[in-house]
Design a protein that fits this description.
Layout: H1 2-6, H2 9-16, H3 21-27, H4 32-38, H5 41-50, E1 59-62, E2 72-77, E3 100-109, E4 112-119, E5 124-130, E6 135-139, H6 147-154, E7 159-169, E8 172-182, E9 187-197, E10 203-215, E11 222-225, E12 228-233, E13 243-248, E14 257-259, E15 261-264, H7 268-271, E16 282-284, E17 287-296, E18 299-307, E19 317-324, H8 325-328, E20 336-341, E21 348-353, E22 358-363, E23 369-372, E24 392-395, H9 398-411, E25 423-426
Parallel strand pairs: 10-14
Antiparallel strand pairs: 1-2, 1-25, 2-24, 3-4, 4-5, 5-6, 7-8, 8-9, 9-10, 11-12, 12-13, 13-15, 16-17, 17-18, 18-19, 20-21, 21-22, 22-23
InterPro entries: Beta-prop_At3g26010-like, F-box-like_dom_sf, F-box_dom, SCF_F-box_component
Pfam family, one: b-prop_At3g26010-like
Protein name: F-box protein At3g23950
Length: about 450
Amino acid sequence: MVIKQLCPEEALVKVLAQVSLRNIARFRSVCKEWKCLIDSDFFRDLYESLKSSSTSVSWSIMNTRDKRVSLEIVGHHGCERWGLTSSLGSYMHHIPETTVRKSSVLSCTDGIVLLYTETVEGELMYHVGNPLLRQWARIPLPSHLSAFDVVRLQENRHFSDNGLVTKMEKGVVVGYKVVWMLASTPLSRELTFMIYSSQTGLWKNKRVRCVRSLFWSRLGYYVPLNGVLHWLAAYGCSLDANYVASYDFYNGCDDDLDNFNVIPFPGIERFERNQRFKRTITTSAGFVVYCNVFNDNGGRTIRVWRLVSTNDHPKSWKLSWKLNTNSSLTGFGADYFPVVMHPFNSDIIYLWSRNKNGLVLLNLRTHKFSLHKEESSSEDNEEGNKSMDGCIMSFSGCKEYMDLIHPIFVNNISGGFHNLYFSQYVLPRWLNPLPQLSS
């Protein structure tokens, strides 16, 4: 309180505007006046104007599929904007009132996390939260479903409970929706959404349909972006996903039976026989992105497309990069696979090198690359583990995870599930306090 009395508001604003978001998050709890100031549009706009040149933020490559290894396999921290001294994985937990038997992160978007836990007594709990601000809200189960019903649904291959989308205004999360998806049959034109809204605190059911029947065995593989879920689907007898389905949960139709979009992947007829990996999607620089490696005339070529339209047409995708790796990745051999694109810099792709047992950061524009290994990741070697955006990279079970999925991938090139799928937890450019339930 003494500090507050000695600092006029103008001086306080100038001081706060110079510190990292990590410290600003702590200052929100000093007193009500500081919290109101920091949460104001004026202060946020001022801070953004002063930090406009600071584009890098903390982010992580997450493993949400295999519970045998770490949740966060690669972390990026130490950026100027957030100033975190440790990676995001250390914040990714919520301690409920009872002992937990099982806990897993289902989804991450715009700094908000969907967490699932089971207590030793068998109680099922879903929470949405901002881990850095230690804000959590428990999501009730749909009123028409018992805990036993939810367990039965979780065992259904054509059900997914990991959907999470946000509504953003001026770079701040003002609302979120938890989305469960269910297909009544493996091959169907229709899906049922169960949607929980932070604005109402209620669940509602909604049926959606598309123009053709699709196989829905990949509902759990999706990426959220700008309030829209994009997930994978297959048509006909394809063992690989050949469509991206999408639905906008904040601009959809209010009718009971609404339509969603299906977009074919690019180059299916031209490249299908030459692609090395099953099709998956990620996000980068505000776009949904598809990247793959292709066998071309005895060499390897990386192609990257970004989704520019949700129309059912091949031109919905725009080819961003085409790079022959024979000269670009000299010395790394042929045994590598794509992991993710950089969330903000669409020039940078992350590849795992089996030959070098390390993560390769390749700039598709300049052809420059760097190799980062787990065994060299330590506090004493921060300079050697800086990424291309200046963040410090840390690893936790990354090599172990890559070794686990690679044999499965090799054995299932022509069939089976998607195994080369990675999630990203990216901090926003602002604090994003958890939206409160509307009264």
